[in-house]
Amino acid sequence: MKNVRPPAICLLGPTASGKTDLAIEIVQRLPCEIISVDSAQIYKEMDIGTGKPDAETLARAPHRLIDFLDPAKAYSASQFRHDALLEMESIRSAGKIPLLVGGTMLYFRALRDGLAKMPASDPLVREQILAKAEHEGWAAVHAQLAAVDPESAARIHPNDPQRLQRALEIYLVSGKTMTAHHQQESAGKSAAQLPFDLHFFAIQPQDRAVLHTRIAQRFERMIEQGLVAEVERLYARGDLDLSMPSMRAVGYRQTWRHIAGEMSFDAMVEQGIIATRQLAKRQITWMRSWENLSSFDSENSETLDLLLNSISKVAI
């Protein structure tokens, strides 16, 4: 029997893997419309460093959920899920198929599983964590988290204090890890609660060295396109700082520190490339544990045709 829920296609992949180019080719051939799943492309005034599609590309293949939020504001995974479902329904009502494309795996998981109800913040526990970080460094906080919740520690980078703090706080407050909270919430949910039938596909080079080369070339291209000037404009606003999610985005954090005189130009480029590689590694780690994920090699000349055929089987 044909599934009564309308289909939605999810195209995952690490940064610089060619997801956007592939998605644009897909919408030229199939009745799909793109929804961006990118926690950096949501911000206005952040175009070059986020790899946001240019005006010509957007004219050929419109993207939803990009370029709509001021960088001074925060945006959560729960907000994304709410907004994405509204956009998906709008696309379905127009007779098209939602094509969700990006590398923010937390957003994909929030869409698929919903979000667990986490314990409320505890100011005393939070202060204890901050004190540990101040005296021993965030690497020590990451090590403490890894000892009790290795799954969350594998997803959260040691240089991401906000998420590290929250993950450890959840365990210390409730005695239950963030991973356990998510698993319990997922176990109590039925896939039928989601109004769409999600089909997950992944794109990435099979050779990690190829991805590393692409990342370096992409970052250097962003520099040539004016990334430093873009961040200088953001720096000059006066209402942004490195504690904000927007400015912690890969590339922006390193460029900000260069502009602030904390890092040389060459060090900024080197650290920006390293941070992007680390991001890609975390994205690939997420993908390895993703259930029912069909993977394709971005270097295979037949991948587009194979992917189109796979999408057609489940959605057309």
Task: Explain this structure.
By secondary structure, this protein is α/β, with parallel strands linked by helices. The chain folds into 2 domains: 7-114 and 189-315, Rossmann fold (3-Layer(aba) Sandwich), CATH 3.40.50.300; 123-186, Histone, subunit A, CATH 1.10.20.140. Helices cover 54% and strands 10% of the residues. It contains 14 helices and 6 strands. The chain has helices spanning 19-29, 55-60, 77-93, 105-113, 123-136, 138-148, 150-155, 161-174, 178-187, 208-225, 227-237, 252-259, 265-288, 303-315; strands at residues 7-12, 32-37, 63-64, 97-102, 197-204, 293-297. It has a 6-stranded parallel β-sheet, sandwiched between helices. Strand 2, helix 2 (55-60) and strand 3 form a beta-alpha-beta unit. Helix 10 crosses helix 13. The longest helix is centred in the C-terminal third of the chain and has 24 residues, at 265-288. It is globular, with a radius of gyration of 20 Å. The mean pLDDT is 91.
